[in-house]
Design a protein that fits this description.
With 264 residues, the protein is an alpha/beta fold. The protein contains 8 helices and 10 strands. The radius of gyration is 18 Å and the shape is globular.
């Protein structure tokens, strides 16, 4: 885990960001408007809001997969473009994106191979990551031989293999059944604690946002604006946390914010 002395550094800064698709055409869409967001290093931030509010668009602005129409996005004090070139972040999507013809170890090693790591160093790192996600015995398996939750663990291991300081996650557990999803949430928090990685996480699930996050950012319907930011203090979360009155209070606060957004 990284030195906590760096914990207060600003990981992500979004200032007055707009995003317009098909600008100037008949089907112009204002996806985001006036987004201001600050994420401190070590935070776990969830983005939640109605469908089509721009959660994934905002995540892609941070990742430099899209460019803002106006405003500025910085990652660790750099432009989002420079942060992408410097590989300061890893990304996990709803579908694992594993390559069927590569076994688990080879999938994890792919970013390291592209970065020019030696074969020996790649093997050492993949073993470390397999231990982190608790899949050591599955290193020679192929994606088709794994459950959905196991595939996502491999995807997380691959995204963290080159030690990025930021992990961007776009509904990574959305396709999983409820029990697997809850298990993966606990696993993700364990990995977050062990690595010290900053996480920005997109979800549609109120309980998931409340359970995982140090802060929940609620977006309004399109054009997406930040309606509210809700701090969540649930301590060291386990499955038992889901029965805690403070967890119910946190989910209620997020739900009420979403209702207020939709009412307006």
């Amino acid at each position: 885990m990284r030195d906590n002395s760096e914990a207060l550094e600003e990981a992500v800064s979004v200032e007055s960001a707009d995003k317009v698709f098909n600008s100037g055409s008949d089907n112009e869409v204002q996806a985001l408007l006036g987004i201001d967001l600050n994420v401190k290093e070590g935070d776990f931030i969830s983005l939640i809001g109605p469908s089509g509010c721009g959660k994934s668009t905002l995540l892609r602005l941070i990742a430099d997969l899209l460019s803002p129409t106006a405003g500025e996005v910085k990652v660790f004090g750099k432009t989002a473009n420079q942060a992408r070139l410097d590989q300061d972040y890893g990304m996990v999507f709803q579908h694992s994106g594993l390559f069927d013809w590569r076994d688990v170890s080879a999938n994890i090693e792919l970013p390291l191979e592209l970065k020019g790591w030696s074969k020996a160093d790649r093997h050492v790192r993949s073993r470390e990551m397999l231990k982190l996600v608790r899949l050591e015995e599955f290193k020679d398996y192929y994606p088709r031989q794994l459950s959905g939750g196991m595939q996502q663990r491999v995807s997380i291991a691959r995204a963290l293999s080159f030690e990025p300081r930021l992990l961007l996650m776009d509904e990574p557990f959305g396709a999983l059944d409820e029990m697997t999803r809850e298990h993966m949430q606990v696993e993700l928090l364990r990995i977050w604690r062990e690595t010290g990685t900053t996480v920005v996480f997109v979800t549609h699930s109120i309980p998931e946002a409340a359970f995982l996050s140090s802060k929940v950012v609620v977006l309004s319907p399109r054009p997406g604006r930040i309606h509210s930011e809700i701090t969540v203090n649930l301590g060291n979360r386990t499955d038992e946390t889901r029965e805690d009155p403070e967890f119910f209070q946190a989910t209620t606060e997020v739900r009420e914010a979403l209702r207020a957004v939709e009412a307006n």
